[in-house]
Design a protein that fits this description.
The chain is α/β, with parallel strands linked by helices and about 350 residues long. The longest helix has 15 residues, at about 65-80. The chain has helices at about 65-80, 95-105, 125-130, 145-150, 155-170, 190-200, 225-235, 305-310, 315-325, 345-350; strands at about 5, 20, 30, 30-35, 80-85, 110-115, 135-140, 175-180, 200-205, 240, 250-260, 265-270, 285, 290-295, 300-305. Helix 1 crosses helix 9 (about 315-325). It is globular, with a radius of gyration of 20 Å. Helix 6 links the parallel strand 8 (about 175-180) and strand 9 (about 200-205). The strands form two sheets. A 13-stranded mixed β-sheet has the order 1-15-14-13-4-5-6-7-8-9-12-11-10. It has a two-stranded antiparallel ribbon with strand order 2-3. It is built from ten helices and 15 strands. The protein has one domain: TIM Barrel (Alpha-Beta Barrel). It binds S-adenosylmethionine and iron/sulfur cluster. S-adenosylmethionine binds near residues 40, 46, 47, 209 and 347.
Length: about 350
């Protein structure tokens, strides 16, 4: 049984007989993002509405075992080579340690990452690493407490900073810090980099996309990667750095005169999701918290693989439905084009 919500994916030609998650534009998806919940401890203005997202009924959210089974199936049957747990806020799930431990047991070689806002992380990081967490990205847009409270609608900066330090102390390396630059926080970008350098974490700025729940994003108002680099350039000398993986979205810059522990040059990343999109090299496949496959952040088409799994279908059948969903992946986000439509779901509901 396949149920598809939103626009039905375009299918062109016959899908070649391969186990991998390929699409009609020649891309192969190997990087799996799994949203675990719609709940969150913050309310970032570029992501969530003030009142939070509408709750998903508990019986529609993937259980611990269902998450593990779908990730394992993606790895074993579909060529997924990395999983990242996200949300909403993954720490809102009390079973996160069990999800990670189950994934690790089912897929001993699969790198397991998570993206978190860092609130309360200090109390969980030991258990998460013990369960098998390999990498973490923590989102933090400013180290100014008043600005943080304004942007996230919660006064939780001290907790996030303790979370970042706990992740470093737990031995995760590199700890990456993601920042979405906004007009109000742009002048503080050099302070944020200064702080990241002093904490030994790698800072990456990611352009704001039209995925806010309040529908206030504007191409004119959004802060571009070029503006971030100009702002950083007022305090730092940035030198273009070579990248291990040229298809990776982050453009990396070495920060002259700064090194990481171990002596390698410190770097800062800028991800120009809007002004220089990397859709042609996209290798992502996404599962929402309700177990639907989303082939692109910007497509409303979702295919209900959890429903197929719950109907008692064998793994091979679930895998084939997943392949079909990815075959219909659109070419790119099209932001700025005349045909661009904002997706119905905001970032926190899809999983960033
Ligand atoms: N709650 C976790 C967090 O904030 O890290 C995980 C989920 S959050 C949706 C994942 C990432 O999406 C975060 O780094 C966040 O900054 C980013 N994000 C949210 N809304 C965005 C938007 N409109 N444009 C670009 N990035 C966005
Ligand atoms: Fe929550 Fe993350 Fe969205 Fe902020 S970006 S509201 S922390 S889900």
């Amino acid at each position: 049984m396949t149920s598809t919500t939103g626009t039905v994916p375009r299918t062109r030609g016959t899908r070649p007989d391969t186990p991998l998650l390929i699409d009609t534009f020649g891309r192969t998806a190997r990087d799996l993002r799994v949203s675990l919940t719609e709940k969150c401890s913050l309310r970032c203005t570029y992501c969530m509405p003030e009142e939070g997202l509408s709750p998903i009924p508990d019986d529609r959210r993937m259980t611990t075992d269902e998450v593990v089974r779908l990730v394992a199936l993606g790895h074993r049957e579909l060529g997924v080579h990395e999983v990242r747990f996200t949300g909403g806020e993954p720490l809102m799930r009390q079973d996160l340690e069990r999800i990670i431990a189950g994934t690790r047991a089912a897929c001993p070689d699969l790198p397991i990452a998570m993206t978190s806002n860092g609130v309360g992380l200090e109390h969980r990081i030991g258990g998460l690493v013990e369960a098998g967490l390999d990498r973490i990205n923590i989102s933090l847009d400013t180290v100014n407490r008043a600005e943080f409270a304004e942007l996230t609608r919660r006064d939780r900066l001290p907790s996030v900073i303790r979370g970042v330090r706990a992740a470093v102390a737990a031995g995760l390396d590199p700890v990456k810090v993601n920042a979405v630059p906004m007009r109000a926080t742009l002048p503080g970008a050099p302070d944020l980099l200064e702080w990241a350098l002093s904490e030994g974490v790698q800072l990456r700025f990611i352009e704001e996309m039209p995925l806010d729940a309040d529908n206030t994003w504007s191409r004119v108002e959004m802060v571009t990667a070029a503006e971030v680099l100009d702002s950083l350039g007022t305090r730092f000398d940035l030198i273009p750095a070579s990248r291990d993986d040229p298809s990776a979205p982050a453009e990396l810059w070495e920060v002259a005169g700064h090194t990481r522990s171990g002596g390698a040059p410190a770097t800062v990343g800028v991800i120009a999701t809007v002004t220089r999109n990397f859709c042609a090299a996209c290798d992502r496949t996404r599962l929402t918290a309700e177990g639907t496959v989303r082939s692109c952040l910007f497509s409303d088409a979702e295919t209900d693989v959890l429903g197929v799994l719950r109907s008692g279908a064998p793994d091979e059948e679930v895998a084939d439905v997943w392949r079909g969903a990815m075959w219909g992946k659109q070419a790119g986000h099209g932001i700025g084009g005349t045909a661009f439509h904002r997706p119905k779901r905001s970032m926190g509901a899809i999983g960033g």
